[in-house]
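User: Second chain of the day. Same drill as before.
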Amino acid sequence: MPLVHVYVGDNDSDPEFVGNFDFLPRTGEYISRQRDDYFKYFHVVEVWYRSKGETDDYEACISVHLRD
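Assistant: Same format as last time:
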């Protein structure tokens, strides 16, 4: 399961959350996150991979917009 860093809008300094996905969400898809009895729906607008420094390890990142 890929670990994905989720950023809201153009802010890519602090992720909104980090989650394990069964698959990497693609641009144009929607993801939802449950908080108590309420769901937040996010539209995926960008997908990229960020290097973890000098190693060959990368982390998956997505940019989303809240669609509530």
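The radius of gyration is 12 Å.

User: Great, on to the next one.
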